[in-house]
Amino acid sequence: QVQLVESGGGLVAPGGSLRLSCATSGSIFSFSAMGWYRQAPEKQRELVATITSGGATNYADSVRGRFTISRENAKNTVYLQMNSLKPEDAAVYLCFMTRYRTYWGQGTQVTVSS
């Protein structure tokens, strides 16, 4: 059974940084595309960043240049480095993995406030 567990969320001041991690179980990680969505109250879910099994990345315009997605296949883990955080980045960040179907984590809360 595939499981995704996010960590690294928390409270950070505007301009600060956080690194989210998403650790996965199972044997399909290295063959899977990975990514992060975010969900803020009363806003549509937004696709933040993706990374293919080959390492190609893509970002939402709202985070390009500030966020970096990466993966470490040896640890079955994907990361989201978030720099220059803004109040509008506050949301629950959800990790997903896609290989024939999509698997989801439970999410980690990011709060950006002074």
Describe the structure.
Strands 2, 4, 5, 6, 9, 10 and 11 form a 7-stranded mixed beta sheet that branches. Strands 1-3-8-7 form a 4-stranded antiparallel beta sheet, with no helix packed on it. It has 114 residues and is mainly β. The protein has no helices and 11 strands. The radius of gyration is 13 Å and the shape is globular. The mean pLDDT is 96. The chain has strands spanning 4-7, 10-12, 18-24, 33-39, 46-51, 57-59, 67-72, 77-82, 91-99, 101-104, 108-112. The N and C termini lie far apart (40 Å). A hairpin with a 4-residue loop joins strand 7 (67-72) and strand 8. The protein is 0% helix and 53% strand.
Estimated radius of gyration? 13 Å
Total count of strands: 11
Shape summary: globular
Order of helices and strands: EEEEEEEEEEE
In short:
With 114 residues, the protein is mainly β. The protein contains no helices and 11 strands. The chain has strands spanning 4-7, 10-12, 18-24, 33-39, 46-51, 57-59, 67-72, 77-82, 91-99, 101-104, 108-112.
Describe this protein with a few key phrases:
4-stranded antiparallel beta sheet; globular; mainly beta; 114 residues
